[in-house]
Design goal:
The protein folds into two domains: about 5-45 and about 165-230, no CATH class; about 45-160, no CATH class. The strands form two sheets. It has a three-stranded antiparallel β-sheet, with no helix packed on it. A three-stranded antiparallel β-sheet has the order 2-5-4, with no helix packed on it. It is α+β, with helices and mostly antiparallel strands. The protein is built from six helices and six strands, in the order ααβββααβββαα. The two termini are about 40 Å apart. The chain has helices spanning about 5-15, 25-40, 90-100, 110-130, 170-195, 210-230, and strands at about 45-50, 55-60, 65-70, 135, 140-145, 155-160.
């Protein structure tokens, strides 16, 4: 989505392609930017970025609004740089022994017991120190990640980006919401202008009151849609 497309849609909606608006494009752009700031409170489309792992990652270059989750790029059994990187699920290993050529069920009970011990130890370690637990510091723009064991060389961060321009919106749902709210907000601006003064000697009436009513009603409906369908949850410590 581009700002030019938003301007063309708003002008067509309010003029039918025949009339001219009495406000400049800069005024409409300010109305769209006002909608963007309001929409940012509900926007929940995420992005994924993979970066070198560190216990403290600088988020200033990511344009991040909120970090949602972090993921490893390597799992158990992947080649790593240390012994802890090469931990293998014992049941996963036994599976290959069973189905390999000449494999048997011999000593499967030992592997199950090993798995139970391995799983219990993981639960205890996560109780003491949760693996991949993270904390985002908004003031410094830093992301702190706790790694219980040595992790892979890279980490994937899932985050909600900041809405700074209409070009940041790629999803059709949010593009539609932005367009409808921008049209409604522009109706309010036009309605305020056209009701600023009352002209009694004009051969045609002004539609300022109607624009104000339509703009307020449409914005109210759209805000209710956003409120009901929001997926963001803000926790209180």
């Amino acid at each position: 989505m581009k700002m030019e497309d938003v301007l063309d849609e708003i002008k067509f909606e309010l003029t039918g392609g025949l009339l001219e608006l009495e406000i400049e494009d800069t005024v409409i752009i300010r109305a769209v930017q006002k909608v963007l700031r309001e929409l940012a409170r509900y926007y929940d489309e995420t992005k994924l970025i993979t970066v070198p792992f560190a216990s403290c990652i600088d988020l200033s270059t990511f344009n991040s609004s909120t970090v949602v989750n972090v993921y490893r790029t390597q799992g158990y059994g992947d080649t790593g740089t240390s012994q802890a990187d090469q931990l293998i699920d014992p049941v996963y290993a036994q599976q290959w022994m069973i189905f390999s050529n000449g494999g048997t069920m011999y000593n499967l009970q030992d592997y199950v017991l090993n798995y139970a011990a391995w799983s219990t130890m993981g639960q205890i370690q996560n109780t003491l120190s949760t693996d991949l637990d993270f904390e985002e510091d908004k003031d410094t723009g830093k992301l702190y990640i706790n790694n219980r064991l040595n992790t892979s060389a890279r980490i994937t961060i899932k985050y909600i980006p900041k809405l700074q321009s209409v070009e940041d919106i790629k999803d059709d749902y949010w593009a539609d919401i932005l367009m409808r709210m921008s049209i409604a907000q522009t109706k309010l601006e036009l309605g305020r202008i056209r009701t600023r003064f009352t002209l009694s000697n004009t051969p045609w009436p002004m539609d300022g009151e109607k624009l104000l009513e339509e703009g307020n009603t449409e914005l109210k409906e759209l805000r209710e849609i956003l409120r009901v369908h929001t997926n963001q949850t803000f926790c209180i410590d």
